[in-house]
Amino acid sequence: MTAWMALVALLFAFCLDRWFGEPVARWHPVVWMGHYLAWAGRRVAPRQAGSWLREFLGGALGWLAGAGLVLLAAWAFQWSLVHFPEWAAALLIGIALKPMLAWRMLREEAGAVERALAESLPAGRERLAMLVSRDVSELSEAQVRESAIESLAENLNDSVVAPVFWFVVLGLPGAALYRFANTADAMWGYRGERGGRVWEWAGKFAARADDALSWIPARLTALLIAGCAGGLPWSRLRGEARRTPSPNSGWPMAAMALALGVRLAKPGVYALNALAREPAREDGGQAQAVASRVVLALLSLASLAIVWLRSWE
Fold this sequence. Notes:
Distance between the termini: 10 Å
Oligomer: single chain
Strand order of the largest sheet: 1-2
Order of helices and strands: HHHHHHHEEHHHEEH
Low-confidence stretches: none
Helix content: over 70%
Number of helices: 11
Largest sheet: 2 strands, antiparallel
Structural class: mainly alpha
């Protein structure tokens, strides 16, 4: 794939995202990945804990088989376009890339929580429950807003920066592999029981694979947030990012907390920028504005990287 094709594909994917949002479920590749992971999950995760090695190997093999299918499908699709006119191939790759990122949906969901909070606290909690897996029934208005901003920052990496990063590096197969890994982590990466099955070891490989593929993009997301906010002290950002259990999600969340000058916390787990004020109503909109600037900066940076990387081919 030439630099010109990659640039057109990337920009067209974002145009499709802006114009149409997410494809319907029956045609969404990430939904297909989820179907596979649900099917395989019933076979790799036991209802009662047994041999940790058997569970780990079963989860690893299930993940590798799914990842192999995703890579093969994405590579075959990209390769099949080799005889198409470059402009047509670029547009078709852009169509295939679009489902691997979800900027419009992320922005709209973050705004929906803030609008629901304006109606009532119960409405805000109900809307937030669509975004996060934690219990939201006892959260205060400030805590609902904190969770929404955290979700926006974390998913800015998962749903935008990381897929674009891997597309730049490995083309469509890279973006598809990342989306599979991130979906597998969301469905399998639990430390205990979920859905009547034990995931402690069965989901370990999926969780670590997602950690590995997200390591650079998460830090890139934090740097982009910091840059779009006028700059943040690196030592402070690194220190705050390390307060979360995840090796990656703390980076964009800490950057957003420092950029907004607010406290972001998950009760009993972590507190980022702990001495700052609680988020106010205007901070939700400000977080979305920062995220929008990050996306624009990402597209500029990705375009330059595509040209530079393809110049070495």
